[in-house]
Structures are given as structure tokens and as C-alpha cells.
């Protein structure tokens, strides 16, 4: 690739301070035309803050930014877009109830010639089509309501929106975290395509294989400081990880042999379990002290199965036996009362209470289990929270800090602690490592393993096959909303799971 | 609440501006009106301008306490004024037409308030109606029901004990003030000493997450709307005891808006989540002090809402994160270069 392209964006000595916390401390970054730059770092390293500076969400308290030779100080994402820096944030900032075309042109709708205030809808559509065309998605109906499109398509629409503003620098914050394999490949193809058009691209991802596949240069942050900027070609994966975490590093390994009992003796057993219109039928067994994986593509019914077991949705088909009793929960409270916990798929929308503190987020289930009028021992719950903060290595100023001030990985650890504190009999983990860095991932997996060692049954859902094969003693493969294969012990390899996932019926 | 001072201090910080506004207003009054702070004890009861403010502000404050809980769950209760009118109507009708003893009349009114509140709670939590819609129905219908109960006329009554609610005193303080203090303390203890406060905040902050975390969301909703209904009925009883009559048309009019304003001035966000009873009471008293101040400076009742609105806007602006950032920036003149 044309790695010697002209200098597009230059940031020098950027600093951001939130209260007494230095989120960013003298970080410099250069982006060249026709280059894909990967921005790496653990959760809380300052990646998000850096791109928020570039895109005008946060105003840096120090340092300067230069775009194409001109000093810039964007005050809002809108202004940043206008001068040529477009950003696709992790949480796609689009409006689900509007059409694809409306979303792409939102905020800069073409007006009619004779009256600027009136929107020229035909121009909106043709511009939207042009932008989607550049991404190789020309076939999509731009009048479709965005909310009815898959997450991958929504992600593409967000990028199309960035293309529509003729951005010279495109920033992508974890664009692949909610995509499946094919969709990822397509997105990486699009990125390559844009690189060829002399765009400068900054790309944040926790998936090192994607970084290896696409990046020309890698910039690593740690604790708000710049570790360095490296040519991607000469970098090994091990080297990358140790740069990110600041020490030599090894992922926890050692796959569990199946120790749990099967069939009638198992803690949870599902037989043709489902709900019409949602899950056709799932067979699965989970024993105490066992981690059972639910594998499958996005939309294959993994999360839906979890929600049915947990009572977030009520099952209408088949049977579920829990602890030797036929059970059918209609609310999560019932499931929780029987010792089941569930870490939901979407941390922000289903997990955290953003304006409450770490300790409140942590103890809520424990307290709620005893009923709303149960007495509260303030001191003991702070002690409990502090214990978990230490145990799981949660990075927070103190337990009374707002949870929304924590990085994603640390928020996830708080949510895990919420369930660990309950000492659950069965814990359902839906994408527990999504959007969090390698070190936090390892911490989470280790914690899950410790819980398993204490005899808790774990139902484990993850889009990362590598993780599934490493952690699970048994895997149930779902396809088209029913279970299609059961793998066990040494039969569980990435290849075998993938084969079962992909096999056409 | 004893071990770590931190959450306390956080709570206090949001009280700074309403308290400051109230202090400023009181200082202004002290400067312009001699005898504003004078309190006189007569016949085992205290008199004075401040006592008047407390007395008349306590009705709004009572309702606003319940409204605080409702708003903290992310809802709103527009029906409190109508419920107050119905409660007054029931009290008077039971006393005059059914000739029941006064405790029965009060119990009837309170029970009605609770039913109205629980009905709102059922609409919101079971039928998933938007709170503003669910309570709007009762707001409009309730006043009609009150008219129906009184037969369209103002019912006057002579009942010593009930008149004493609005006009008597308890431990030297007017009875409504005592009722407000008792309600505030009871709610504060209930909410902070049990898991209830946490549950309310969780439901308001993220209802989906609350359900998945096992928070009994329906019970919480029924409770907060129920409490709001009971407090609204109490305010209605106080109002009709002031004038020894039930006026279905005017009783509790605009009470819902006053209560919402008190909550907002007190620093509780309309989007739900964190709440503060202390802030709400200060908010209610701030508004009552405004009213009294304007009245004492001979500002006519017609234009009084205008200066009042000014103060309300000011306090609300001071709650906005942007303005706070800017104001705290004035104190610490660093930044720019770090």
C-alpha cells in the first residue's frame, strides 16, 4: 500500500483531564493518506478519549491538532465532520426509526434550489445510494427503516454516513465488535477499499487478527500515555500484547475435561426447549462445576436461549428441568430466586445503571433478591464491593465512583461481581468478553474458571470461537434457532465448531 | 450512612444551589423587611412569617415528596391535584351527608388516594402505559369525579378535629408542618435503610437492566404511585380543612405543576435515577418563600408568576451540567494549558 502518503492529521501532546484523572497525557498521533492505523491499548488506556478529542466530543486541555497544515479545534462531531474528520463510534449513533437514506444525510439534508428549508428527498436517496455503492452495498433499499436492518448493515450505514461528508480521515471505534465472521471480512474489505482511495483510517479493535490483517501501522497507548507507533509488518502478536499490557503476558489455558454428570443428574437440562417465533427447540445439559458453551452465528438463537432460561422471556415449548424440578420462569426474579444469574449481552442497555455508583451497581441484585423492603447494611455492602474490586482487579478511583466513569472492561467486571456476590448455582454469561481488552478478558475468564471450580454451572456464550474452545468442556451448537450439534472434550476445536456452525441442513 | 462520608457529600453537592437561592431570598427579606425573622410564641404555638411559609409550603412539599419517588422511577404523576380535590370532596361528603365520625372520613379520603395511586401504578407497570398518559387520564377524570361527589356545589362543614388539621398546632408547630416532617423522615428512613431507594433509582436509571438484575419493578412502581396518591389525598384533606369546605373546582389546582417544580428545583432529574427528599423540601419552601416575598412587597397576584418563573429558571439552569462546569471553571482558573 502507499504507506508514504501525505500527512493528513497530526496531533501533538494531547492531554485530557477528568477531575483528578489524567485520561490522556501528552499523546501524539499522525495519520497519513492511504494508511490504516490501528489504535491499540487496554480498556482505560485512553483510546476512546483520544478519538473523542479528534472528533470534537471532548476538548483537550493541552496539545494541538493539525489537519492538512491547518490548526484545528473541533468543538463537536458535527464540526469535525465538516472539516474532514468523520467518526463511527462504538455505539452506533444512528436513529433506528428513520430510513437508511435519512440516517446517511441526517443533519445535512440537501435543500431544494428555490427554498433551502425544504428537503429534496430525491437527492437524499441518490446520495445515500452513492455512499452505499462505494461500500459495495448498492443493492440495499435505502428507504428501509434502519432499525430493521442487521447490526452489520447499521455499522455499514454509519460508515456510509462518514463517506457522505467526504471525510479525509475516518475513525472507527471497534467497528467489528458486534459483527460475525463474514460481516467482519466484508468490513475489512471496505476499509481496504477506502485506503485505496487515499483516505486516512484510524481503527480501534480488540481483535488482534483483524489488526494483523488490515493495519499498516500500529499505535499503542497505555494508561493514557503513548507507548509507541510501529510498522505493522515487523510486529508479532506476542510483542503487541506485551506492549499493550506492559509486561510479558500469557493467556490462561488448560481446557476442562468434562466433570459434570450427564442427563438426569445434570443441574439444568433443556429438551426441545423454546418459544414460538423465537427458538425452535434446544437440547442442552449443564452440570454443576461445568462450563457449557452455546456456539453459533449471530442470530442463531444463543442469546434468546439464554433469555428463555433466565425468564426474561417465557418459554412456550419443550421442557426445562432445573435442579431436578420442571421449571418455567416468567420473570428473571423467579430465576434469580432459584440461584440463576445472567450477564446480559448488551452491557450498556441491559446491564449497568449509568448514574449509580460502582457499589450500587454491584449490590443491586443481592439486595433486590431479599425484596425491596429488606434492611440495608451500608457498611457491609461497601466492604463487599471493595473485596470484589480487589479480587477482580477493577480499576476505579473508589467504590463510590459512578460506573459510567469506568472503562468498558471494568464495567463488565462490576457486572460479573454483581452475580458472583449472589453465589449462583447457574450463571449464564452472554458475550462476557465483548468489547474488552486482552488483559481484562483474561481476568474475566480466570474469574469464571474460579467460579466453576467452586461448583457453579456456567452457560457460556461467545462469538469468539477460540474462547469457546478454550473454556468449555462441552459445546452446544445452534443454527437457525435450534440446537444442531453437541461436542465434547477433545472434539471441541475451532474447526469442528465452525464446521457444525456452517454445515447446511 | 455512617461509615463513608463520600456518598453523603455527593448528595450534599447537588443541594448547594437550591440552598444558596433560598438563603439569598431570606437575606433579601431580612434586609428589606424588619421583623421577617421574628417568631412569637402565643398560646403554646409559634407565629411569624417564617412559620407561615412553612405552613403553606408544607402542602406542596407533602405532594412533592411522593412526586420525587415517582419521578425517580422515570415517571411523573399529573393526577395529584385531581386526587387532592377528590380527597377533599370525599372528606366533606362523608362528614356532612353520611354523618360519619371524622376519623372515618379521613380514612375514606386516604383510602381513595391510595386506590388512585395504585391504579396509576397498575397502568404504568402492568399495562405499560406511559406515565404521563396514564396519569393525565386521572387528572382530567378525577376532577369530574370530585364534582360528582359534591354534586357540583361547595360543601361546607363544621368539624373541630378536621378543622384543627389545617388550623391547629402540634408541639407548637402548625399541624401541616408536623405532617410534612413526619412524612419526610419516615420516607427517608424507609428509602435509605431498606433496599427500596436503590430499587427506585435502578428502575429510573435503566428499567431493562433493573428487570434483568431481579429488581421487583412492578412492586416498586405500585409502591411509589401508591405513596404519591396517599400524600396527594393528605394534601387535599389539609386544603379542605383550611377553608372548612370542599371546593371540587379549585382544590389542588396546579398542585401537580408546583410539586414537579419543587422536585426539579431540588435537583432530582426528570429522567429518573438519583433523587433527594431534602432537595425537594427545599424546592417547595423556595417557591413558597418567593410567593410570600412577592405578596409582602405588594406585587399583584396576577404578575407574581413572572418573577417566580425567573428564580425557577435560574435554579434549574444551575443544575445543568454545562452551567456547572462553567461556574466551577470560574473558581479554578487553570486549564487551557496543562
Q: Which SSEs are present, and which pair or pack?
A:
The complex is a heterodimer of chains A (505) and B (338).
Chain A: E1 7-18, E2 21-32, E3 35-40, H1 47-54, E4 62-67, E5 70-72, H2 77-83, E6 85-88, H3 100-105, H4 121-134, H5 151-164, E7 169-173, H6 181-196, E8 200-204, H7 208-214, E9 217-222, E10 225-231, H8 237-245, E11 268-275, E12 279-286, E13 291-295, H9 302-310, E14 317-322, E15 325-326, H10 332-337, E16 340-343, H11 347-351, H12 358-369, H13 378-392, H14 408-420, E17 426-430, H15 438-453, E18 457-461, H16 465-471, E19 474-479, E20 482-488, H17 494-502
Parallel strand pairs in A: 3-8, 3-9, 6-7, 7-8, 13-18, 13-19, 16-17, 17-18
Antiparallel strand pairs in A: 1-2, 1-4, 4-5, 9-10, 11-12, 11-14, 14-15, 19-20
Helix pairs in contact in A: 4-5, 12-13, 12-14, 14-15
Chain B: H1 6-13, H2 16-32, E1 40-42, E2 45-47, H3 49-72, H4 80-96, H5 102-125, H6 131-150, E3 155-156, H7 160-167, E4 169-170, E5 173-174, H8 175-193, H9 196-205, H10 207-212, H11 217-243, E6 245-246, H12 255-265, H13 277-296, H14 305-319, H15 321-331
Antiparallel strand pairs in B: 1-2, 3-6, 4-5
Helix pairs in contact in B: 2-13, 3-8, 3-11, 3-12, 3-13, 4-5, 4-6, 4-11, 5-6, 5-11, 7-11, 9-11, 12-13, 13-14
Amino acid at each position: 500500500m502507499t504507506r508514504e502518503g501525505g500527512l493528513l492529521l497530526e496531533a501533538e501532546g494531547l492531554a485530557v483531564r477528568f477531575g483528578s484523572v489524567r485520561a490522556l497525557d501528552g499523546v501524539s498521533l499522525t495519520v497519513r493518506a492511504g494508511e490504516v492505523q490501528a489504535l491499540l491499548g487496554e480498556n482505560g488506556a485512553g483510546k476512546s478519549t483520544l478519538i473523542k478529542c479528534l472528533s470534537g466530543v471532548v476538548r483537550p486541555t493541552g496539545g494541538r491538532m493539525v489537519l492538512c497544515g491547518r490548526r484545528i479545534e473541533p468543538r463537536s462531531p458535527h464540526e469535525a465532520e465538516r472539516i474532514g474528520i468523520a467518526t463511527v463510534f462504538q455505539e452506533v449513533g444512528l436513529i433506528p426509526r428513520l430510513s437508511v437514506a435519512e440516517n446517511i444525510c441526517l443533519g445535512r439534508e440537501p435543500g431544494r434550489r428555490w427554498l433551502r428549508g425544504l428537503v429534496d428527498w430525491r437527492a437524499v436517496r441518490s446520495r445515500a445510494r452513492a455512499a452505499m455503492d462505494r461500500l459495495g452495498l448498492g443493492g440495499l433499499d435505502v428507504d428501509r427503516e434502519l432499525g430493521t436492518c442487521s447490526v452489520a448493515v447499521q455499522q455499514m450505514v454509519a460508515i456510509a454516513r462518514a463517506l457522505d461528508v467526504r471525510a479525509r480521515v475516518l475513525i472507527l471505534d471497534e467497528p467489528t465488535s458486534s459483527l460475525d465472521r463474514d460481516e467482519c471480512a466484508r468490513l475489512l474489505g471496505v476499509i481496504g477499499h477506502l485506503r485505496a482511495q487515499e483516505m486516512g483510517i484510524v481503527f480501534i479493535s480488540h481483535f488482534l487478527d483483524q489488526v494483523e490483517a488490515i493495519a499498516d501501522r500500529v499505535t499503542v497507548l497505555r494508561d493514557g500515555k503513548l507507548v509507541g507507533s510501529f510498522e505493522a509488518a515487523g510486529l508479532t502478536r506476542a510483542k503487541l500484547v506485551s506492549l499493550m499490557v506492559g509486561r510479558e503476558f500469557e493467556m490462561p489455558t488448560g481446557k476442562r475435561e468434562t466433570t459434570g454428570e450427564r442427563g438426569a443428574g445434570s443441574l439444568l437440562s433443556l429438551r426441545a426447549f423454546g418459544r414460538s417465533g423465537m427458538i425452535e427447540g434446544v437440547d442442552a445439559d449443564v452440570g454443576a462445576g461445568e462450563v457449557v458453551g452455546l456456539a453459533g452465528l449471530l442470530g442463531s438463537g444463543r442469546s434468546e436461549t439464554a433469555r428463555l432460561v433466565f425468564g426474561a422471556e417465557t418459554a412456550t415449548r419443550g421442557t426445562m428441568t432445573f435442579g431436578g424440578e420442571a421449571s418455567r420462569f416468567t420473570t428473571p426474579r423467579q430465576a434469580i430466586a432459584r440461584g440463576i444469574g445472567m450477564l446480559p449481552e448488551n452491557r450498556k442497555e441491559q446491564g449497568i445503571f449509568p448514574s449509580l455508583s460502582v457499589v450500587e451497581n454491584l449490590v443491586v441484585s443481592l439486595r433486590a433478591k431479599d425484596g425491596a423492603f429488606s434492611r440495608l447494611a451500608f457498611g457491609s455492602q461497601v466492604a463487599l464491593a471493595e473485596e470484589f474490586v480487589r479480587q477482580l482487579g477493577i480499576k476505579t478511583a473508589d467504590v463510590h465512583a459512578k460506573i459510567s466513569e469506568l472503562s468498558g472492561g471494568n464495567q463488565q467486571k462490576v457486572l460479573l461481581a454483581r452475580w458472583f456476590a449472589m453465589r449462583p448455582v447457574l450463571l449464564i454469561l452472554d458475550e462476557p468478553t465483548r468489547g474488552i481488552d486482552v488483559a481484562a478478558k483474561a481476568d474475566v475468564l480466570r474469574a469464571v474458571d474460579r467460579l466453576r471450580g467452586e461448583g457453579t454451572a456456567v452457560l457460556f456464550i461467545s462469538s469468539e470461537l477460540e474462547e469457546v474452545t478454550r473454556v468449555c468442556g462441552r459445546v452446544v451448537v445452534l443454527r437457525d434457532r435450534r440446537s444442531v450439534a453437541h461436542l465434547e472434550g477433545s472434539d471441541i476445536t475451532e474447526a469442528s465448531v465452525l464446521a457444525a456452525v456452517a454445515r447446511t441442513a | 450512612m455512617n461509615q463513608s462520608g463520600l456518598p453523603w457529600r455527593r448528595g450534599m453537592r447537588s443541594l448547594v444551589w437550591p440552598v444558596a437561592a433560598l438563603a439569598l431570598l431570606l437575606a433579601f427579606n431580612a434586609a428589606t423587611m424588619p421583623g421577617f425573622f421574628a417568631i412569637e410564641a402565643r398560646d403554646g404555638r409559634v407565629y411569624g412569617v417564617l412559620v407561615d411559609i412553612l405552613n403553606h409550603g408544607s402542602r406542596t412539599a407533602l405532594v412533592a415528596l411522593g412526586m420525587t419517588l415517582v419521578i425517580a422511577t422515570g415517571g411523573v404523576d399529573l393526577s395529584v391535584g385531581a386526587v387532592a380535590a377528590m380527597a377533599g370532596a370525599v372528606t366533606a361528603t362523608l362528614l356532612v351527608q353520611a354523618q360519619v365520625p371524622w376519623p372515618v372520613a379521613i380514612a375514606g379520603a386516604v383510602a381513595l388516594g391510595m386506590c388512585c395511586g395504585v391504579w396509576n401504578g397498575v397502568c404504568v407497570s402492568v399495562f405499560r402505559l406511559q406515565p404521563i398518559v396514564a396519569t393525565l387520564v386521572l387528572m382530567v377524570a378525577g376532577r369530574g369525579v370530585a364534582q360528582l361527589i359534591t354534586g357540583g356545589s361547595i360543601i361546607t362543614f363544621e368539624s373541630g378535629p378536621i378543622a384543627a388539621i389545617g388550623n391547629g398546632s402540634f408541639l407548637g408547630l402548625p399541624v401541616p408542618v408536623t405532617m410534612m416532617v413526619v412524612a419526610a423522615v419516615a420516607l427517608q428512613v424507609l428509602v435509605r435503610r431498606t433496599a427500596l431507594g436503590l430499587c427506585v433509582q435502578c428502575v429510573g436509571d435503566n428499567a431493562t437492566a433493573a428487570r434483568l438484575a431481579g429488581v421487583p419493578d412492578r412492586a416498586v412502581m405500585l409502591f411509589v404511585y401508591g405513596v404519591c396518591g396517599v400524600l396527594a389525598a393528605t394534601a387535599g384533606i389539609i386544603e379542605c380543612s383550611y377553608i372548612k369546605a370542599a371546593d371540587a373546582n379549585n382544590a389542588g389546582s396546579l398542585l401537580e405543576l408546583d410539586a414537579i417544580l419543587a422536585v426539579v428545583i431540588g435537583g432530582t432529574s426528570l429522567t429518573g435515577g438519583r433523587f433527594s427528599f431534602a432537595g425537594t423540601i427545599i424546592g417547595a419552601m423556595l417557591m413558597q418563600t418567593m410567593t410570600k416575598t412577592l405578596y409582602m412587597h405588594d406585587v399583584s397576584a396576577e404578575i407574581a408568576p413572572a418573577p417566580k418563573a425567573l428564580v425557577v429558571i435560574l435554579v434549574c439552569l444551575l443544575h445543568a451540567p454545562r452551567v456547572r462546569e462553567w461556574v466551577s471553571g470560574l473558581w479554578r482558573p487553570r486549564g487551557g494549558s496543562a
